[in-house]
Automatic annotation (TrEMBL):
Cofactor: FMN
UniProt similarity note: Belongs to the NADH:flavin oxidoreductase/NADH oxidase family.
Recorded superkingdom: Eukaryota
Comp. bias intervals (Polar residues): 193-214
Any single GO CC term annotated in Swiss-Prot or TrEMBL for this entry: cytosol
Record carries keyword Oxidoreductase: yes
Pfam families to which the protein is assigned, alphabetical: Oxidored_FMN
Origin species: Pleodorina starrii
Keywords: Flavoprotein, FMN, Oxidoreductase
Name of the gene: PLEST004449
Name used for this protein in its record: NADH:flavin oxidoreductase/NADH oxidase N-terminal domain-containing protein
Record region (Disordered): 188-221
Every NADH:flavin oxidoreductase/NADH oxidase N-terminal domain range: 77-409
GO MF annotations in UniProt: FMN binding; oxidoreductase activity, acting on the CH-CH group of donors, NAD or NADP as acceptor
Amino acid sequence: MNTMRNAAAPSRISAGLLGMTRHVAAVARPGAATSPRKLHTGATTDVAGTATSTAPATKFDIGGGVELPVPSDVAPLFQPYSLSGGRFQLSNRIVYAPLTRMRAVGTIPQPSAAVYYSQRAVPGGLIISEATNIAPEGLGYMNTPGLWLPEQLEGWKPVVRAVKDKGAVFFCQLWHCGRASHPDLQPNGAAPISSSNRPITSPEYQVYTPSGPKSYTAPRPATREEIKRVVGEYARAAKNAIEVAGFDGVEIHGANGYFIDQFIKDSVNDRTDEYGGSIENRCRFALEVVEAVVNAVGADRVGIRISPFTTFLDALDSTPYATHVYLVEKLNAYGLSYVHMVEPRVLGVIDLDSSPDSLAPFRRVYKGTFITAGGFKAENGAEALADGEADLVAYGRWYLANPDLHKRFLLHAPLNKYDRDTFYSPGMEGYLDYPTLEEVQAREAQ
């Protein structure tokens, strides 16, 4: 999710331009959510009440047969978890969040991606890939990978193999950008499709094209036939990801102002047919995509990401609780692997000090595995789990900058600072060169 904020040089795109959150002040968590599924550091249970661990983890395998003691203050992060009804046995509750990196060549994943993801893989860990385009029309950003060409799938195979060789579980995030695109990036220079013809107008957002940064243009409303076609493209992309590339599962990107979110949010969707107007109608497309992907690959291999409060790309909803409680209630019927939601303190590209809003109502409604994401570190991530706010916690920027994040949390070691200027720049800087703790210590000893 990498939309530009202001102009950037073609050779180097500032990370603040591209959908990662900009830190304004130290994050203070809103009040802990009340939940009947509180995680204790003793016995833990999954959402069905089945025990996943009878005692707190005392040691954790970080890979290579190396085990480290688990301190009590971070112990909730290192409890095992049974995902997808037991299909995937996770060793811990830390998830690598989907992060756009723009290191593909065109739309082809590169060998460097195998190094990048495997650096961050631990036995029994869950990694969600960068957003991956499902079709040419879904492309919104340069140098982001796809899932529709044989060469794209061949490019993904060694990446997936490298992660699974480390013993990790690997899901691929399915992406269609909708109006967050430009005719310069579309087949035959066509206007991008969306739920309506409303363009992204906030001046801080620009799209990066082969000829430089440009303002967004008006999209065209998708016809019913096009909606049906895109639903099929999600299903085909899911099958390609799992059956050809070898991913364990897929995550449907329904967040952050992209195509599915453009139907959900009423600031974008002004349709008057069965895909617009009421909450039920605005959620219809998302649920049709979920049903098609579930039918294609099985519910236990499918997750979805949702952002009720995010205003990124001018996509906001006037009744976020009503809209997304309805959506989450409907998702209960599918038996998904998980629902992944973005914390309300993450608004657009801003991290707030705090927020009066909460994911607690959605947590209470959803009956399956619940992942929360949004600027967590070790302490507040462990607190979120201990307080029952989520089953798993997704880490983005801090995990990006610390490929050995699990080890650093276990040792209470300092974290590498992330460099926003290299989040999306070409080359390996800020991609493969974040040092491990041992490398930092070796440099300091010189």
